[in-house]
């Protein structure tokens, strides 16, 4: 059985401070999508995105989201991996984006900031 990861090779864009985003580089993050190819998703900023379901629906209907191509990684798994290399960066996410620290929430790492890597489990 193979496990599929996204290896981050360059600093991803985003609303987190540069020093936090820089800490993703070099990490292997488990993919939360079935396909190995990047897909287009509707996205919002981690800080500027609308909070709550009602506001998210309003933002969707009024065109406040953008479409981006990339890879999905579950937020909790990504932050856990980040905490192994830089606890301060992981704690930045925990402090500033607590709404993302729950099952079913995902980061979108844009196409071009990394590549898919498979590892076999024997």
SSE map:
Blueprint: E1 2-8, H1 18-22, E2 28-30, E3 39-43, H2 53-61, E4 66-74, H3 75-85, H4 87-96, E5 106-110, E6 114-120
Antiparallel strand pairs: 1-2, 1-6, 3-4, 4-5
Plain-language structure description:
This protein is an alpha+beta fold. The chain has four helices and six strands, in the order βαββαβααββ. The strands form two sheets. The protein has a three-stranded antiparallel sheet with strand order 2-1-6. Strands 3-4-5 form a three-stranded antiparallel sheet. The longest helix is centred in the middle third of the chain and has 11 residues.
Q: What is the helix tally? A: 4
Question: Compute the gyration radius: what is it?
Answer: 14 Å
Query: How are the strands of the biggest sheet laid out side by side?
Result: 2-1-6
What is the helix fraction of residues, given as a range? 25-40%
First CA to last CA: what distance? 7 Å
Report the count of strand segments. Answer: 6
Main beta-sheet annotation: 3 strands, antiparallel
Are there runs of 5+ residues with pLDDT below 50, and where?
none
The chain-level structural class is alpha+beta
- Beta-strand share of residues: 25-35%
**N to C succession of SSEs:** EHEEHEHHEE
What's the rounded overall pLDDT mean? 86
Shape: globular
């Amino acid at each position: 059985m193979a496990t599929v990861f996204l290896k981050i090779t360059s600093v991803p864009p985003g609303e987190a401070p540069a020093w936090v985003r820089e800490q993703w580089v070099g990490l292997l993050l488990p993919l939360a999508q079935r396909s190995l190819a990047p897909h287009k998703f509707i996205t919002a900023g981690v800080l500027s995105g609308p909070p709550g379901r009602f506001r998210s629906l309003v933002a969707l209907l009024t065109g406040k989201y953008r479409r981006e191509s990339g890879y999905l990684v579950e937020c909790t798994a990504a932050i856990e991996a980040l905490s192994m290399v830089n606890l301060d960066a992981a704690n930045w996410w925990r402090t500033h984006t607590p709404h993302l620290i729950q099952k079913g929430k995902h980061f979108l790492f844009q196409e071009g900031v990394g590549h898919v890597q498979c590892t076999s489990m024997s």
